[in-house]
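User: Sequence in, structure out. Go.
Assistant: Echoing your sequence, followed by the structure tokens.
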Amino acid sequence: MDGYETQLPPAPEPVTNTEPLASGTPADVPASTTTPVAAATTPTLPPAPVIPRAPGIPAQMTSAPTQAQSNAGFKWFLIITVGLLLLCGISFAYFLLAHPDTQGVSVVRMEGTMITGQADDADTIGSEVVGRELREAADDPMIEAIVLRVNSPGGSPAAAQEIIGDLEYAKTKKPVVVSMGDIGTSAAYYVSAHADRIYADPDTFTAGVGVIWKFSDISNWMEKEGYNLTVIKSGSKKDMGSTARPMSDDEQAYAQKIVTDSFENFISDVTTERVIARSDIEDGRVIRGADAVKINVIDELGNLNDAIDGAKKLAQSRTKSSLPGLPS
């Protein structure tokens, strides 16, 4: 035996069973048998442990821990749900208190020269930007009216027509009011004429109903500087408007036709949307707000807050007229 071995304990001594056999014991089984102690002794299992019940917990909960866990989880779910609802309510109330003048009214801004697309900077505004905001406000159930804040000298007729399409969509759902700032002329007035009501300041520049197309000619400077330009074109008017040469009489007549057709579309649309004498605006001049209100170019003198209040009143009037039994 080396140092890593352990000697086993001696085996138990056999015990001789001297008790008499019970009746019916087979004769061929000897009366005295020898069995080990371990085999003769029946093992006794320890009693099952008893889990003590914590104070204040009903007895049925200690007997059904799964049910208790389910009840606790449901209570936490209710607590979290109620908490979230309260948080949303508080946030909404804070918004209403923080914006008491504009609650229920969306202010969409159209500022800068109008072009088609998604431009949105200090100088230009895209038709897609304005149109998207108009439609979002129209579809928002929390918005009851829209104010289009206009501060624009105009822009392309196409940009105006795209915005008008979205403004007309918005009008089918809620009132749309225009508030003019420094200026709302030309294509910007084209759009504004489609609103339910127009507000402007006394010195706002508005109207300017007309179409203009400018061409430059630097051919004399090019000749003086010895600058030559060769043009290969497929048609006589393909390079119409090139600065390298003066326009021909035929080109000028064609350009005038485009401008005239566009103007007729413009002024016809404006005089259809508003009761304005054509003679008051067809010369294309800009008009001060104080004078514009006299000839129905605008409806009322006022700032942005006045326009918001007016939009709210229009919304309330529309709601009353849509409910039976209420005076409109």
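User: And one key feature?
Assistant: The first helix runs from residue 37 to 40.
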